[in-house]
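Let's practice the habit of predicting before peeking. Look at the sequence and jot down your guess about where helices and strands might fall. Then scroll down.
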Amino acid sequence: MRLHLAVILSFCLVGWARSQGTKYGLWTPDRAHSDSQPIQWTGGQFEFPCASTKSLFKSSGKFIPKNVIATRAQLIGDTIYLALPRYRKGVPATLVKTSVKPGTCSTTFKPYPCWDLQEEGNCKALQSVVDLVVDQNEVLWVLDTGIVNTLETPVRKCPPKVVAMSVKTGKVLKTVSLEGLTSSSSRLQYLVVDYAPDGGCFVYVSDAANRAIIVYNLQADRGFRVVLPKAVTAGCRSRDVLYIALIRRDCGSTELYFTYLSTNKLFSLKSEYLRSGVADGRILDLGKKPSRMVIIGTDNGSAIFFRNEGDAEVYRWDTNSTFAEANFKPVYRSQTCQLVTHAVPDYKRNTMRVLQSNFPDYMQNRVGCGAIQQLGLMQGCW
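Done guessing? Here is the structure:
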C-alpha cells in the first residue's frame, strides 16, 4: 500500500442536499455512500476472554466504561485501530481494533495485539497510547507516553516509547525507548513516521514542553532532539500542544509542518534537514494563522486537515498553495456539535474518515454514561 493520495483524493464528492456558508467559503454536505455510514458508540465495550474476567475488571476498578475515549485512529481495509489514552482509571486496554464492515451495528473493542500487552506497570506492555500511524509497509507504530491517569493524578508507570507492530501478524517488530531523549517535564503528543530516499526509516515525536522534536533513526538505532527556535513559541501563553504533520510531495520529498496551538504562526522544515539534525536557519515561517488551528491529520499527500479551536467545521489546505484563508476549503461539519480529533484516509473506499467525539465534555468529566464517539465520512469538495 502506498501512502499517497494525490490522485485518489483529487475528486469532488457530488450529490449534496444543501449548502451552508462558512468564513472560508461554501460548505457542501455530501450523501454518504451506502457502505460508509457513520459508526457511533458510547464509552467503550471490550471483548473480554470471559464473563468472569469482565466482572473482575469491573469490581477492581480496572474497567469503567465511561472513562474510555478514542482520540486517534488508523484504517486498514475493514479494520480500524484506535488509541484509547489512559486519561483516567478504568481503561483496560489502550490500543484496540474493531470492525467497520458495512452493516456493523455495535462496536466492541478487541485489545491489540493481545491482552498481555495492555498491562499497567509492565514496561514491556503499553501504558497509554496517545497517537498511532500505519506506514507504507503496513506496520503500525504507536506512541506510548508511559503516563496514566493524566486527568486525575498522573503516574509515570514506565519510560516513554514507540512500538512498531506488524498489522499482518500482530507481532512486535521494534520497541524504541525514548527515555534518554526526554526529561521528566516532557509532554509527548504526536507521532510521524518518515522514509528517506534510501529506504531508511525515521520516527518524529513532538515534545511540547521542551519545544523540541525527537528524531529517531531506526537503521542506525539512535536518536536526538531538535530544539526549535524561540520564535516558534512567540506569543504563546504556554507550551500547550505542539502539532506536527508530515507532507509528501509528488517528487517524493517530505516536509514537516508544525505549530503550537496558542501561537499565531505556522512553520515547516524539510525532512532532509530534520533527519540530519540541521535545523538552524532552515525553518520556514509560513505566516500568521487566522485562528487557533487544531491540526487533525493529512491525506498522506499534500493536504493538511484542521479545525479552529472549539469549532466543528473541518477545512482542507493544499500545501502546494499559499498559506492563506482563501485556500482553506471546508470539507466537513459535524451535525452533532462533536469535535473531530483525527482525520484519516480510508483507502478501501477512496475517501477520508473523521473520528469525532464530545471530547471537551469528557475532559471536564461531564459525559454521563460515557463520551459519544463517531467515525464519520468526510464531506464536501476535496
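How did you do? Residues 51-59 form the longest helix (9 residues).
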